[in-house]
C-alpha cells in the first residue's frame, strides 16, 4: 500500500528520474536530478525499501556519526517534490536512486504506483552513455520515446534500439505498457574521459529538459564548472600526442556530421533559452552504457598500462560522407 501523507495536491506534475550505474556515464544524469533537488530545495516524501531491490555487497550501506550516535544510510531510491514558479507553476516529482540489483519489474511497478497516485502526466528519464564524441564540442543530447504520437507532438525520435538495456530502458517500456507518456533524454559522454563528474553533460541534460518542459532551470555554478572541466580535459589531452590526435579526428567527424546544427532551428532554440533566462530573476559504481549497448572501457585518467595511467584510444572509423552518421546509441541518436 502506497502512503503519500504530507504531499499536497500537485499542479501538472511531471516525474523526472535518474539512476546511478550503467545508465549514468560520468554521473551526468544523477547529478542533473541532484542539481534540481538542491536548487529547488526538494523535500523527500518517500523511499523504496532497500531490502527489496539492492544487493548490499554490490551497493554497500555507509556508516556515519550523528550527534555521537552511529547510523547507517542504506542505498535506495528516493522521491521528492519541487514546485517550479513562474507564470505557469507546475510540480516536478524527482526520482533519484541507484539502478536496482534485482526485481526490476516490481521496482518499476512501484514507481508507477507513485506516479499514478500523484497524478503524474509525463515521465522523463535522464540517462548518459559513452560515445565517440569530442569533449571540445557541445554535448549531444537526444530525446526518444516509444510512443509514435508523443514523438510527433514533442519533436522526439521514436526509439528503434535493440540490444542490452538498463533500468532507463526498462522503466520507459513499463510506462508504455501502463499507458503513461514517457520520454528518455540521453547525453553522450566522451568515452576517453568518462570518470565523474561531468558537469558539461549534466548542464546539457538540464538545458534539454528546459526545452522539453518549457521551464527555466537555475544553473547555479554548473556553467563555470563545465568550463573548468573542459579546460582540465584540454590540459590532460595535450600531454599525450596520440590522445590529442584522436580528439582532433573526433572533432572533424563531428563537424562533418553536424553541419545542420548551424541551421535556423538550432539558433532559434538557443535564442529562446536566452530569453527565458534574461526575463526571469534568480530563483527564490561499475561500467556504463556505450553507443553500441556494451560496457565502458578504461578512462583517460585512470586506465592502467599507459603513460600517466592513460590508455591509448582506439582509432575512430572514418565518417561516411553520404549520411554523416557515427553509430547509433541505445537512444537511437548519433553519438
Topology:
Layout: E1 14-20, H1 28-39, E2 43-47, H2 50-53, E3 62-66, E4 69-73, E5 78-84, E6 90-98, H3 104-118, E7 122-131, E8 141-145, H4 148-153, E9 157-158, H5 167-178, E10 182-190, H6 199-213, H7 222-238, H8 241-257, H9 264-279
> What is the strand tally?
10
**Separation, N- and C-terminal Cα atoms:** 42 Å
The major β-sheet equals: 8 strands, mixed
User: Cα-atom Rg, whole angstroms?
Assistant: 20 Å
Describe the structure.
- Strands 2-5-6-1-7-10-8-9 form an 8-stranded mixed sheet, sandwiched between helices. Strands 3-4 form a two-stranded antiparallel ribbon.
- Strand 3 (about 60-65) and strand 4 form a beta hairpin.
- With about 325 residues, the protein is an alpha/beta fold.
- It is globular.
- About 35% of the residues lie in helices and about 20% in strands.
- Helix 1 (about 30-40) crosses helix 6, helix 3 packs across helix 5 and helix 6 crosses helix 7.
- The longest helix is centred in the C-terminal third of the chain and has 17 residues, at about 220-240.
- It is built from 9 helices and 10 strands.
How would you briefly describe this protein structure?
By secondary structure, the protein is α/β, with parallel strands linked by helices. It is built from nine helices and ten strands. Helix content is 34%, strand content 19%.
